[in-house]
Structure formats: C-alpha cells, structure tokens
Specification:
50% strand; 14-stranded antiparallel barrel; 522 residues; Porin; elongated; 10 helices
C-alpha cells in the first residue's frame, strides 16, 4: 500500500516544467526565439542571454528587451495495469508569466549587460484525478481483498506542483577587433519547487456497501488473519508444525477442507503456499496481520505541503566572430550549476515504520537535501544574410546531462541531450518582417528514466511570428510556437502481494506558446 501519493511526490523531486531546451534547462528566453527558434548567433538585444560576446556589435548606447511568454502544456499518461479504474490520466501545466528582461550598454569596445529569466522550470502542474502511481496499490484492494467480498475501490487524489529557477545574469563583453569579440559572465540561480497534494477517502465496496478502506482492514482483514494464525496454534503445539500442507493432509492431521481453507486464505492475500509448512503458514498469517495493520495507517488521509529551495552559480564564456555584415558565428559554454535543495516541510507523508524501533518514517523530513543540477551546455550558432531582406539563423545546443548530479537519475540516461534549430526572417517592408523556425530536441532518457511525473521525449517545435519596427528606437516582436512530442513508453511491473504484474505505460504531451517582446534602443 506504500506506492501512493508518497511515491508520486518522490518522483516529482526530479520533475521539471521546462518547455524548450534540455531536460532541466529552458532556452526559449525571448519573443524573438519563439518566432525564429534559433537565436544563438543573434546580434539583437536578447544576446545578453544567447550571445553575450556579440553585444559589442550592436550600436553604441543602451539596449533593452522586455519579453513575456504565456505557455501551456497537456500531459497524457496511459497505463495498462488491469486493476485501475481508468487507464488514461491527464495533467495541465500553465505559465501565464514567463519573462525575459535584458539590458546592455555598449561603449564600442566594451559592453556591460544584465539579464533576468526563468532558466529552468517556470510553470505549475495540476493533476485533478491523480496518476497511475497514485492508484496502483489502491486498485490492488479489489484483488487482495476479494476473498472478503471487496469488488471496487474509490479515492480522492489531488496534486499540484510548481517549479521555477530564476536566473540573474551579468556579462562583460570586449571587442578584440572589428571581427572578433569575447565575453565572460555568470548567472546566479535561485530555485524553488513547491508541491501540495492529498490522498483522502480511500474506500472499498464490499457486498454493495462502501466504507473506508483503513477501517475495513482493521475491523475485518486483520482479525481474519490473526484469527487464522491463532486457530493453527493447536496444530503447532501438537507437533505438526514441520509438516507441509500435503503431508498434513496425507497423515489426516488436517482435512481436505481445512487445507483448502488455510491455503486459500493466504493465497487471497497474494502469498504463495507451494511447499509451505504449517509453522510457516502460521507465521505468514501473522505477517499478513502485521502488514495490513501498517497498511491501514498508510491508507488514512494524508497531505503534503513542501517547499524546496536551492541556489547556485553558472560561469559563462562566449566568443563571437563577425567577419562581415552578412555573416556572424558564435560559441558559448555554460558551466554546470550545482543545486542542492533543502526541504521546508509543513505537512509530511507517512511512508512506513522503522522495523527496529517502530518509529514513523516520513517522505520529506524537514531539512533533508536533494540534488538537481542544471547541466553544463555547449552552444554554437550562425546567422547569414544572403540578401538584405532575408536573415537565416541556426543554432545547436549540447547538454552534458550525464555529468550532472540528479541523485543517480542521470545514470538512467543513454547519452546527453541536444537540440538543433533553424529559422528565417524576411523583411516585407522597412517597417514589417515575418519569420518562421523549426527546432528538434533529442534527449538521452531511457525507459528506466521515465515515470508518469517526469519523462523526457524527443520533440519538434514550429515557430511563427513577425516584427514591427515602430521607429528607430522601438521594435515590437510577436511570436507563437507549438511543440509536438514523440510518444514514449516503458514496460513496468507492480507487485500484487508477492506476484509481479507487468504493465505498459505510455507518455505524450504537447506545448503551445504565445509571446510578445518590446526592444528599445537609446
């Protein structure tokens, strides 16, 4: 019975709500990116994030870029486990405010810049009806308690989580020559994950009557198991303890009916009786009584109210090569951001009991620490203007996920993730231009990495939009994008008592973004 909300929330420790980029990292950091999908060699004001070294090639003076994106995501999980009431679960992620704010000052030789954006996370997920990992153990009640007349189960499961990693970036850029520049910078990351949830009113239907599962177990199942153990005591006292059920029946120690009753009771609890002695059977009944007494406590109403926080620092270096007005080439390397999260727990969840002391074990001890680094990444980009009205842009991101510390989950990757983007912008007039772009993302997540709360899938993103040059100082950018993911799956097993049951779980999601940005040059 332990695999309930507590398992789901444990999985959520490595979950994130990134909408574009690596498994943890967001790269959709401006309205210009939304409409082009490739900004890594840009010489625009959002170069504060994408290409800091290129800022020295902007006009001298101040440059500002203020952006917001509104994002939505739908996650769909299906699970073939036969005991579940429903095989399809959906969760919605929504981020109405996803800002990207950039400011730079270019002297001609030096450029100084600041940026603020959600470098990771940036949304909240709500699961109104739970997920398979909420329900598997509860769904087992119909099988494990079938001998007691249980035919159905119900529960009230709810989960809401949020995750955002705010990045505060500063850079100093230097023009070595009219063709070459470099930049050094850093980003301070303040990360917070919050999650609230409950698992309430777990009930079973026995003989057409609904009632709380914990009360049913304590009032009926535990007495049945402990009573069966007591009834076997005279057989043990009479010396029949070492005999198997077959031997005891052959020697007329027990009748065929008694054997069927004793074995059938254990089998109804998922205990195999092959080759079992009467002493072992008595111990098994006692174990069932102990197990279900603990399970009843775990089936009681529970709540979680947890906040996890961490801070880290990201060193950043970049180089820009600008051989002509038509061509620009950029490279950037962001070091790993070490993030150690600390629990601030207001309400915790009971997961079990210490077998030696009997003390309660909870899921989120206040002050406990976990790790979810932002991995280092290598970025390369090129922009090219074959004619004055057309700008072509490409970008490549390579994330060193396997070198990050995700408390061991990084070992479930078969490789690092990467992205490749390409976009184009065409000026219809001096005042108005249109653009489109495409981004392909591939992660190294294996089947063992995937869970119903945290999964990573290959995706393709299409972006569209336009730019309006209001005057020499103001530029308005509008963009929209849609991300399509390749469906993923894994084969899992869940123990029904002592019997492993295989199931197939599939994962899918889609993301839409609407973005607006205003660029200002002074």
């Amino acid at each position: 019975m332990k695999r309930s909300l507590v398992v789901l929330l444990a999985v959520f420790l490595t979950a994130n709500f990134s909408f574009g980029g690596g498994i943890v990292t967001n790269t959709n950091q401006s309205a210009m990116f939304t409409r082009l999908q490739a900004r890594d060699a840009t010489l625009g004001p959002d170069a504060v994030y994408y290409n800091p070294a290129g800022l020295v090639f902007l006009s001298t003076g101040f440059h500002f870029s203020i952006n917001n994106q509104t994002l939505g995501q739908t996650r769909t999980v299906t699970n073939s486990y036969p005991n579940l009431n429903d095989d399809t679960y959906k969760g919605d992620v929504f981020a109405p405010v996803f800002p990207g704010i950039y400011a730079s000052y270019n002297t001609g030789k030096f450029a100084f810049s600041l940026g603020f954006n959600p470098i990771g996370g940036g949304g909240g997920a709500t699961y109104e009806n739970g997920l398979p990992s909420f329900e598997m153990s509860q769904s087992d009640l119909t099988k494990l308690l079938a001998g007691a007349g249980v035919t159905d189960y119900s529960m009230d499961a709810y989960f809401k989580g949020s995750s955002v990693y705010f990045g505060y970036q500063g850079n100093i850029s230097y023009k070595i020559s009219d063709q070459l520049s470099v930049a050094i910078g850093g980003r301070y990351v303040s990360a917070k994950e919050t999650y609230q949830g409950h698992l309430r009113d777990i009930e079973v239907n026995a003989g057409g009557t609904w009632g709380r599962a914990d009360a049913f177990i304590l009032n009926k199942i535990v007495p049945l198991a402990s009573g069966a153990a007591d009834q076997m005591q005279p057989l043990i006292d009479g010396g029949a303890g070492p005999l198997t059920f077959q031997q005891a029946e052959d020697m007329s120690v027990i009748t065929t009916g008694q054997r069927a009753q004793m074995e059938g009771g254990l089998q109804s609890f998922g205990v195999s009786t092959d080759g079992m002695t009467l002493r072992e059977a008595q111990a098994a009944y006692t174990g069932v009584a102990t197990k279900y007494t603990a399970s009843a406590q775990l089936l009681g109403d529970q709540e979680a109210d947890v906040e996890k926080t961490a801070t880290g620092f990201t060193p950043i270096i970049s180089v820009d090569f600008h051989p002509s007005e038509k061509l620009n080439i950029a490279l950037k390397y962001e070091h790993r951001t070490k993030l150690e999260f600390t629990n601030n727990t207001k309400k915790d969840l009971l997961t079990g009991f210490d077998p030696l002391t009997g003390d309660s074990i909870t899921q989120f001890p206040d002050g406990a620490k976990t790790h979810l680094d932002i991995p280092s990444q290598l970025v390369a980009g090129v922009t090219f203007k074959p004619v004055d009205k057309l700008l072509l842009s490409t970008g490549f991101h390579y994330y060193l996920d396997k070198n990050a510390n995700w408390d061991g989950k990084e070992k479930k990757l078969d490789g690092n993730s990467f992205e490749f983007g390409i976009g184009g912008e065409y000026s219809l007039t001096d005042m108005f231009g249109v653009s489109a772009g495409y981004l392909y993302t591939k992660s190294g997540a294996t089947g063992s990495y995937q869970t119903d709360m945290s999964y990573s899938l290959p995706s393709s993103t299409v972006g569209l939009g336009g730019v309006l040059h209001l005057n020499e100082m103001l530029e308005l950018n509008l963009g929209a994008s849609y991300t399509m993911y390749q469906e993923g799956s894994r084969i899992g097993t869940h123990d029904l008592g002592e019997i492993p049951i295989s199931y197939t779980e599939t994962y899918d999601k889609d993301v839409w973004i609407v973005a607006v940005g205003l660029n200002i040059a002074l």
